[in-house]
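Lecture notes, continued. The same structure-token format from the folding unit now serves as the input rather than the output. Read the line below as a description of shape only.
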């Protein structure tokens, strides 16, 4: 009986060791997953803040759509219109200058 008892004792130890390794690896993988999810959550929250800011800006523009300032802004930005006797100085060194683009009409 002593041999059977030793075998059972060894088998129990091996089963317990395998079970302990399984639990430790599961906990480790869950910790990694939690870190990744926290990072993803923070990134998503930052994106939400940016989108809310954009929404507020757009809502403000919608509320001011009938104002003269808004009409002037659109005329200047999208249609490149000028006021009478207005002088524009162009910096030839700037690449992003909208008046120097080749697609001007």
């Amino acid at each position: 009986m002593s041999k059977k008892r030793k075998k059972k004792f060894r088998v129990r130890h091996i089963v317990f060791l395998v079970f302990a390794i399984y639990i430790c690896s599961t906990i480790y993988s869950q910790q990694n997953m939690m870190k990744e999810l926290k990072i993803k959550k923070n990134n998503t929250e930052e994106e939400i803040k940016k989108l809310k800011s954009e929404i507020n800006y757009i809502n403000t523009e919608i509320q001011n759509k009938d104002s003269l300032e808004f009409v002037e802004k659109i005329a200047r930005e999208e249609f490149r219109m000028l006021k009478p006797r207005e002088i524009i100085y162009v910096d030839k060194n700037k690449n992003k200058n909208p008046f120097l683009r080749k697609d001007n009409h």
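Point for the exam: The mean pLDDT is 84.
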